[in-house]
Amino acid sequence: MNGRKPRRDSDVVLSKFGQKEFLFKFLVIGDIGVGKTALVRRYTEGKFTSNYKITIGADFAIKTFDWDPHTRISLQLWDVAGHERFGYMTRGYYKYAVAAALVFDISRVSTFQSIKKWLFDLREKVTLPDGANIPVVLLANKCDIPCPVVPTEQIAKFCKENNIGAWFVTSAKENTNIDVAMRYLVENVLKTKIDGGVRDSIRLRDKPTIREETTTCCRS
C-alpha cells in the first residue's frame, strides 16, 4: 500500500530545479449576474464576451505564472453560481480555498446589499488552520457602466466595518484592476505561508463561530 499522503487541491509545494510551485484555490463569489464568470475568463484567458451562460453549481479555471525567479504559482479560480448562496452545497465548493474575491455589480444596489450575507456564509464555513479568516478582496464590478449607483464611500465603510483589507473597482470588459486584485490576494496568501510555514491547507468550520474582528483601512 502506498504510504504517501494524497495531494490536496490547494497549498501544494513542489520542488523543481530549486523553484517552489504553489497551487492555490481562490473562490469568486457573489450574486447571479454580477460578472463573476467574465472576471475569471478575462483573468485566466485574457478574453471577454457578454454571452456567458449562467453557471450551474460551480466552475473553475486555472492560471499559472512565475511570481518571482524562485516561485511559480497556479491559481485555481472557482466561480460559484450565484443561486447557490448560503446553501448546503457551498461548504463543498469552499473546501481547500485559501482566499476569496467577493463580487457585486456597482450598478445594482441589491447585489452590494447581498455581499454581507456572502461574507458571513464564507467566514462561517471556512478558516485558516489557526482560526483566522482567509484573505478577502471586494470587487465593485462593471465600472464601465455609466453612472454607478453604489457610492465609493459606502463601499469603503463596508470594508472597514467588516475587516476586508482591500477593494477595487473592476471591469472584465475593459480589463480594469483584475490583475491588481488577484495580486493582492496572492501577496496575502504567501504572507500567511511565510509567517506560518507551509500548511496542509485550510479547514472548514464544523460549527458557526462568532468572534470580534478589528478593522483595517481599505483601498480602491
TrEMBL record:
GO molecular function: GTP binding; GTPase activity
SMART domains for the chain: RAB, RAN, RAS, RHO
Topology with respect to the bilayer: Lipid-anchor
Subcellular location: Membrane
Predominant cellular place of this UniProt entry's protein: membrane
UniProt entry keywords in alphabetical sequence: GTP-binding, Lipoprotein, Membrane, Nucleotide-binding, Prenylation
Database matches in InterPro entries: P-loop_NTPase (IPR027417), Rab29/Rab38/Rab32 (IPR030697), Small_GTP-bd (IPR005225), Small_GTPase (IPR001806)
Family named by the database record: Belongs to the small GTPase superfamily. Rab family.
PANTHER family given in the database record: RAB FAMILY, RAS-RELATED PROTEIN RAB
Functional summary from the UniProt entry: The small GTPases Rab are key regulators in vesicle trafficking.
NCBIfam families, per the entry: small_GTP
Full protein name: Ras-related protein Rab
UniProt organism field: Dufourea novaeangliae
Lineage of the organism: Eukaryota, Metazoa, Ecdysozoa, Arthropoda, Hexapoda
